[in-house]
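To whoever is on call:

I kicked off a structure prediction for a single chain this morning and the downstream step that reads the tokens threw a length-mismatch warning. I double-checked the sequence; it's 290 residues and nothing unusual in it as far as I can see. Pasting both halves so you can look.
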Amino acid sequence: MTARACYRGPMPPLSDEAGFPPSPYTPPITPVPPLAAWWLGRTEYRDAWDLQHRLVAARWADSIGDQLVLLEHDAVLTLGRNSDPAHVLADTAELARRRIELIETERGGEVTYHGPGQLTGYAIIKLAHRKLLVRPLVRVLEWSLARTCRTFGVDAGPHEGVPGCWCANGTRKIGAVGVRIERGVSYHGIALNVTVRLSDFELIDACGMPGVESTSIARELGKPAEPTTDSVARAATAFASAMAQALAAPLESHLAPATRPNDARADLEAMLAAVPAHPAARTDMPARAR
């Protein structure tokens, strides 16, 4: 790995702690393994998907530690492995007009929209090394989403019976969770609406639930805004801090503004190039698209 600056250590407490519930996870091991967080900026979906598979293979082989990859995508719709395509409300012509690809992935969950102004996070974690099960991992991700929203002054949290992060007592969805576990290593992860264009959610039934209203940090604050990568970068820093706090883990930060996205990607690729390839994860990426 190249010798760029990397902060390693506990992050400072997030603001406005009063009244926020404690982390749902208590590490049963000492010392707690670190979590490396990377901000990659705007990244094409299939490129990030391939990167995840390579990280999963290296993590399964213990060639690298746990990773949190944070980025922003161009507009794309992704389907979970058991999702119903009927929850995609736009036809082929409309998706083509908007230049939005529809891709089937191996994660859990229903159809999801990714696009400018939305933070997407991929958590590459070897669960056994943290003595962490799948449901507690989902709770950690939901808690971290809610904690990130709280950092920006938005009250949000989990809603009983459906994964993700919600506002207004579960009536408006602000964040999604969908993970995949292969050979004990998680990937995929979260999506958080920061300054995303909410009209694009009219293309789908979010969570596979017709009528679900999507919202964003900007909307909840009453500050309508055009999507910006800078706003997503700020949310990435907050989410990385929240997830490290949820796991009680030291954070190895490769985040803006200390590290530029191109430099972070180069360092991440250098880390992967330095370890042998291992066929741990699926390398075939199903591509049901229309």
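Update from on-call: the warning came from a stale cache, not from the record. Cleared it. Sanity check on the structure: Residues 1-16, 283-290 have pLDDT under 50 and may be disordered.
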